[in-house]
Design a protein that fits this description.
Blueprint: H1 2-27, E1 81-85, H2 91-102, E2 107-108, H3 113-116, E3 133-135, H4 140-143, E4 148-153, H5 156-169, H6 177-180, H7 186-209, E5 214-218, H8 219-224, H9 226-236, H10 244-252, H11 272-293
Parallel strand pairs: 1-3, 1-4, 2-3, 4-5
Length: 296
């Protein structure tokens, strides 16, 4: 009788662990490109390293999003427009703003189930029926389906830390301080080195090699002067006629649920050596952007 009871409890524990594992896997964000050709550019071997598992991940609730109008697809469809950025640069927040200001869905080359269920039902659509298509990819295969591009650039230090937070805690969560100190800081150091190279490659590839019209904006411009910056994007997208009521509503509801709140660590995660590398790489990319904007 005692042996039977022990077996019963063992089976109950195994069943509980199985159910918990299924629920855990269902919560993991799938962040892989959808229906894109395999990338062949030699430099692309350096990108798209993924680290970590969900950590401090607050729940996203559909009821929190109040749309300025019913969202719809573009009909007839147009040539697709890329909304390209390095991860952690505010791409999801800008998509939210564009959906509010235009009334059109935005799409993505990814299928992020968290976004799909919370405000972005066209998350896995990468064609001209959506206003813009989110992508973090670079290289010929990543660029070739697009006719125009919006390049969203954020300073590498802030962008890399935001991506570290996303991979650890989701779109609005945070990495715990212990994750920065994992393996005596080597984990974080390798993450910074890999992502800084990817940040440079992403921005320079689209800047130099994309042949269609390109509109470059900085994340900091969105934060400091949202009205003007968002209006330039709307104009670049040729939304006709622009809806002033929607635009005003978008400004009133600018925060949404996908902009991570500021959180101050009690230590600086970047060493002096890291800061020198960040500054050197940022200077190179920003000089290229300024030369692109004001050619001689």
């Amino acid at each position: 009788m005692h042996v039977t009871r022990v077996r019963y409890w063992i089976l109950a524990i195994l069943l509980f662990l199985y159910i918990a594992g299924v629920l855990f896997l269902s919560a993991v964000t799938l962040h892989e490109p959808k229906n894109l050709p395999k990338q062949t550019d030699r430099n692309q071997r350096l990108k798209n390293y993924e680290y970590g598992f969900p950590g401090l991940r607050p729940p996203l609730r559909r009821s929190k999003i109040q749309w300025c109008s019913d969202l719809k697809y573009i009909n007839p469809a147009k040539s697709p427009v890329a909304l390209v950025s390095f991860p952690g640069s505010g791409n999801t927040w800008l998509r939210y703003l564009l959906q509010q200001a235009s009334g059109f869905y935005t799409g993505s080359v990814y299928k992020d189930y968290g976004l799909l269920k919370n405000g972005f039902p066209a998350e896995n659509i990468a064609n001209g029926s959506v206003l813009v298509v989110k992508t973090h990819e670079w290289g010929h295969n990543a660029r070739r389906i697009f006719s125009k591009a919006i390049l969203l650039v954020r300073a590498p230090g802030a962008a890399i830390q935001a991506e570290f937070n996303r991979q650890s805690g989701g779109h609005i969560g945070f990495a715990s301080p212990d994750r920065y100190k994992r393996t005596k800081g080597k984990y974080w150091q390798q993450f910074v080195n890999d992502k800084l190279e990817a940040w440079k490659q992403t921005n320079l590839d689209w800047l130099y090699n994309f042949t269609g019209p390109t509109h470059v904006i900085f994340y900091e411009q969105l934060v400091d002067n949202l009205e003007h910056t968002l209006k330039t994007i709307i104009n670049f997208l040729d939304i006709s006629p622009p809806n002033e009521d929607l635009f005003k509503c978008a400004l009133e509801r600018k925060e949404g649920i996908y902009r991570r709140k500021r959180r101050v660590l009690n230590f600086d995660p970047y060493t002096d050596e890291m800061k020198r590398k960040l500054e050197k790489t940022q200077k190179k990319v920003y000089e290229a952007i300024y030369n692109f904007a004001t050619p001689s």
